[in-house]
TrEMBL record:
Reaction it catalyzes: hydrogencarbonate + H(+) = CO2 + H2O
Top EC class for this record: lyase
Alphabetical UniProt keywords: Lyase, Zinc
Any matching Pfam family: Pro_CA
Database matches in SMART domains: Pro_CA (SM00947)
UniProt-recorded name of the protein: carbonic anhydrase
Function per UniProt: Catalyzes the reversible hydration of carbon dioxide to form bicarbonate.
EC number: 4.2.1.1
């Protein structure tokens, strides 16, 4: 059942409520019933002097992974950070800490996707020993530990490596940032990993850190409403 939730500016939300909003929006997108909320002139005007997003989405820069579209959201709904292969650096950590410490978002989402070019490049390097040129090398170097971890677990497909990289990235965010780890420990913020399927448009939950409330929030396959 899809929960009716309007503007996040109306009241604070818990990590579980934020996750439910994303699930509902993704389900509308998958089913072809997107509402395109909060995309009109009044909404734009209401955000001139403030923002109050209910989640931060740290995802891959892939052009097919536009957060506001795949989760059926609009202006001011989510704070978005993107790098190729959702690779973390100091600027990413600073942006995420800003979203938690200043904007008070209750949910951090690490968003990976199948057929990821950056993960594919890292797998190619591990398989062949050939490193790419330029700054792409930095991306590959940061993704390689996830590729190696997947291989140690007997996983050889790129999409399995994407899932492993998404999980490891979520863990590293909490390990690398005292601000984020404290927010998770206090229950004010949770960190989840999602793996997006390009063909279906569905974002599957593959990991969770913190309290999402009820049942087993860390189990995969819970993206549907």
């Amino acid at each position: 059942m899809v929960t009716e939730i309007n503007s996040p500016l109306s009241s604070p939300v818990t990590p579980a409520e934020a996750w439910q909003r994303l699930r509902d929006g993704n389900e509308r997108f998958v089913s072809g019933h997107s509402r395109h909320p909060n995309q009109d002139a009044p909404r734009r005007s209401s955000l001139v002097n403030h923002q109050d997003p209910f989640a931060v989405i740290f995802g891959c820069s892939d052009s097919r992974l536009a957060a506001e579209i795949i989760f059926d959201l609009g202006l001011g709904d989510v704070f978005v950070v993107r790098t190729a292969g959702q690779v973390t650096d100091d600027a990413v950590l600073g942006s995420l800490e800003y979203s938690v410490g200043v904007l008070g978002v209750p949910l951090i989402v690490v968003l990976g996707h199948d057929s990821c070019g950056a993960v594919t490049a890292a797998k190619h390097t591990v398989d062949t020993g050939s490193m790419p040129a330029g700054h792409v090398r930095t991306l590959v170097e940061r993704i390689t530990p996830s590729v190696l971890a997947a291989q140690r677990n007997g996983l050889t497909e790129v999409n399995d490596m994407v899932v492993e990289h998404t999980r490891q990235t979520a863990e590293r965010l909490v390990e690398s940032s005292r601000m984020i780890s404290d927010a998770v420990a206090s229950g004010s913020t949770a960190v989840i990993g999602l793996s997006y399927r390009l063909a279906e448009g569905r974002a599957d939950l593959v990991s969770s850190i913190g309290d999402l409330g009820g049942g087993n929030p860390g189990a995969p396959g819970l993206a549907a409403g």
